[in-house]
Amino acid sequence: MAKECDNTSVGMLIRNDRGELLLVERKLYPFGFAPPAGHVDDHGSFEKAAVDEIREEVGLTSGKLKLVAEGRKDNRCRRQGGDWHYWKVYEVEAEGDLNPSSEETKRVDWFDGLRLKELAEKTKDYLAGKISEEEWQKNPGLELVWLEWLAQLKIL
Questions:
Q1: Peptide bond before residue 36 is cis, with ω within 30 degrees of 0
Q2: What is the side-by-side strand order in the sheet with 37-39?
Q3: What is the mean pLDDT of the chain?
Q4: What per-residue confidence (pLDDT) applies to 2?
Q5: How many domains is the chain partitioned into structurally?
Q6: pLDDT per residue over 12-71, tens digit each?
Q7: Is residue 152 in a domain?
Q8: Position 42 in a domain
Q9: Range of the domain at 93
Q10: Residue 1 has pLDDT above 60, yes or no
Q11: Residue 150 lies in a domain
Q12: Fewest CB atoms within 10 A around its CB: which of 11, 81, 136, 156?
């Protein structure tokens, strides 16, 4: 039986010293590039989930968390009942060497503003039906909910 969705998620914006944003290409649905993120589940709090998910997804140790956005977004996940989530998005100071999860990520990279805009345009093309589902899964843009968050936060 599929795991039940708790409808709560965290997302973490991590930048390097050049101002580039860390994104992972998701291996599992929902496909696309996104900052490290995950469900709150049994972590106990949004903040604890943020710290744990950073370590689990990309192998970094998080420092200071700064809440930059929160709210409800319609976005599907692979869990039962997961068609919306209440999100908290944090800017995070993180350190250590990248060690991405082989179970959850295809790859991890740092993205400057130009590369972020290219991913956003690909996502818009996908939403407009210009890119097939098969092509999207092979070579995606931004995960749909992150197109919304990054625009709302004026990162795009």
A1: no
A2: 37-39, 8-14, 85-95, 61-73
A3: 94
A4: 61
A5: 1
A6: 999 999 999 999 999 988 899 999 999 998 898 999 999 999 999 999 999 899 999 999
A7: no
A8: yes
A9: 8-111
A10: no
A11: no
A12: 81
Domain membership of residue 38 (yes or no) is yes
Name 142's bridge partners. 33
90 bridge partner residues? 12, 67
| pLDDT single digits (tens) 99-108 | 999 998 999 9
**CB < 8 Å & 24+ apart, contacts of 145-151:** 145/30, 145/34, 145/73, 145/75, 145/85, 145/87, 146/11, 146/32, 146/33, 146/34, 146/35, 147/120, 147/123, 148/73, 149/11, 149/69, 149/73, 149/87, 149/89, 150/116, 150/120, 151/120
83, two tokens: 């068609």
Q: How many residues are listed for the chain in this entry? A: 156
The residue written with tokens 């996502």 in the block is 123
**CATH code assigned at 49:** 3.90.79.10
The Cα–Cα gap between 5 and 38 comes to: 11
